[in-house]
Structures are given as structure tokens and as C-alpha cells.
Amino acid sequence: MSYIADTLGNLVHQTAFFNLTVGNYVMIAVACVFLYLAIAKEYEPLLLVPISFGMLLVNIYPDIMLSIEESSNGVGGLLHYFYLLDEWAILPSLIFMGVGAMTDFGPLIANPKSFLLGASAQFGIFAAYLGAMALGFSDKAAAAISIIGGADGPTSIFLAGKLQQTAIMGPIAVAAYSYMSLVPIIQPPIMKLLTTEKERKIKMEQLRPVSKLEKILFPIIVTIIVSLILPTTAPLVGMLMLGNLFRESGVVRQLTETASNALMYIVVILLGTSVGATTSAEAFLNWDTIKIVVLGLVAFAFGTAAGVLFGKLMCKVTGGKVNPLIGSAGVSAVPMAARVSQKVGAEADPTNFLLMHAMGPNVAGVIGTAVAAGTFMAIFGVM
Q1: How far apart are CA 45 and CA 38, in angstroms?
Q2: Shortest CA distance to 96 belongs to which of 189, 276, 219?
Q3: Distance (Å, whole) CA 280 – CA 170
Q4: Lowest pLDDT segment from 3-12, 261-270, 349-358
Q5: Nearest residue to 91 (alpha-carbon basis) of 157, 147, 177
Q6: Most buried residue, 150, 184, 280, 351, by CB count within 10 Å?
Q7: Which of the two residues, 85 and 151, has the higher pLDDT score?
Q8: Does the pLDDT at position 27 exceed 70?
Q9: Crossing angle of helices 153-162/169-181, nearest 10°?
């Protein structure tokens, strides 16, 4: 009987109940809220489901993120190996290739002025950088945090890894992906506050047709120009444009399908779960994390506002030919931000179709965020 009692006692003490802290339970509750938002509300479920499940796993079984050095047998936890691919900038670069293969750059080519709207929305990045410096973060940490303002999760992870800010990579990535997922909630109030109903009803002229030659040349030319000016952006911009060249060349259909479907979804699973697994209670429930989350929200709001305000300026300059709502799509959340511009415009006038016009600034925002990350890397001498 004593053997049975000892065995049962050992089994009971092996359960997670005896090892979890209050913080772990808090993070488990947060993970469940994220799962609810992803499944019931469908807020970017492809991102939130793996992120929140990774959060759930690491707070029940912390050893799932155990590093090789900390392990007694030289074997790390499962999600630790996924996370190494984030640190090495492999998964963020592959995500960009998938985005390029899935995205039509035609609206940006047809309306090059969209680059200006995409650039204006990057104001949130520099606002976050200054804010992080003011809150006591180091210059490199502030730069890594600032990319949250562009609502670009892969670039946030990429820059944090390159600047060796792995200690705060988890909070940065979770904040960036969370705000990407919450674009439909965060952006509309800002867009409506800064525009009049008359402006929201503006109908834009149909974009000109873009030739196949233009679509093929665009990724090649952008890669050459941007990489020559900022070589450090080559992993992100290069992969983005390679994916788009797969799509537009028309001769590598298998590669396009793989990059935009199977590979993209595999990478999302690996990246999402590993990012979520960085949110252990010990690493996440502290003042630095709270500062990062708040800074990210403020920066994202600033970026959205800057894009809309520059859209209003373009509206004035063009005599009312530009709907300011498309400026909010200058953040990097593709294509969610463009869909939000369409939705808010359609609420003012159901016959208003802004989606393709908003895709121009949206794509420009992706390129702009990568350029901002490359600029920070050049400033700090990181290759």
C-alpha cells in the first residue's frame, strides 16, 4: 500500500498544479482571451491561434522553451528550436516571401504616390523610438520596440534579433502581432475622428491597368535600388520581392503556390507558437513589458493618424481626388489595413470601393517598415 501511495503521491506532484505561479494563471487566462478573440471574433486567427496556444503551453509547461544550455541532457524544449529560427531571422524573411507571393503590387505601380502615404504612416515608428528612449530603454532596445508602430510582426522580430535584443523579443513580437490582429478595432475610431463624412464618401478614379512587364520589372528594380542604398534590408525586401516575382513572372507557378500556401502556413505555425511561447509569466509580467505594449499601441495610433492626415493633405492638393481613409492603410498589416479602409469608406457610402486604392499604401507600408528597420541597422553598424 505504501508503494501505491508513494507512486500516486509522486504522480500528483508531477502535475503542473504544484509548479504554477499566480502569474502563470494570469497568462493562461490571457491566452484564453486571445483564443476567444481569434476563434469567436475571427481577429486574424491565423496569427492569434498559434500565438495564444504557444502562450498557453509555456505557462503550463515552461520546459517547452528550455534552452539547450539549461537542459540537463543537452536537448532543449520543442519550441526553443522554433524560437531559434526567429532569432536567426529565418522565419521573418520567409514570411516576407510568402507575403510577396500573395500580394498584387499593381495598385502601388499604378499610383506611385501611394509611396508617400506608406512613408507617412511610418511616423509611428519614430514616435515609438523617441518614446522608448524617454522611458529609459537603450537606443538599440528603443529601435527594436519602435517597429511595432508599423504593425509589422516579422520585421519587429527581425530587427530585435539583429540588434541582439532577444530579452525583449517576446513582448515586442506579441505586441506587434496583437495590434496587427486588432487593426479592425483600433483604426476605425481614429479614421473617423480625423475625417469628415464628406471626405469618407470621396470616390476615387479607377486605377490604370498595369502591364505584365511593369509587374515583372517592379520587384527587380525595387530590390536593386533599395538593397544598394540599404544593403541590410536585403533579407526582408529581397524575399518580399522574390515572392512577388514568383507570382508575376508566370513561369514558376509551383513555387508561387508553395510560397503563398504550404510554406507560408508552415512558417506561420512555427513563428506563431514560438512567439507565444516567449510569454512566460516571468518574462512577460514586468514593467518593461507593460511599457512596450503601451508604446506599441501609442505608436500604432500615431502611424494610423499620420497616414490619414497625409491623406487629407493629398486630398486638398488634388482637389478632392484622394479619399483620406486610404492613408490609414500605410501601416504594414497586409491586407487587413486595406480592408479596414474599404469597410469604413463603405459605411459612409455603400457604393464606395477603396480596397484596391488602399492596397497601394498598404504594400508601400511593408516596404517602408523594412527600410526603417534597415536604417536602424545601418545607424548601429549591424549587418
Answers
A1: 4
A2: 219
A3: 9
A4: 3-12
A5: 157
A6: 150
A7: 85
A8: yes
A9: 170
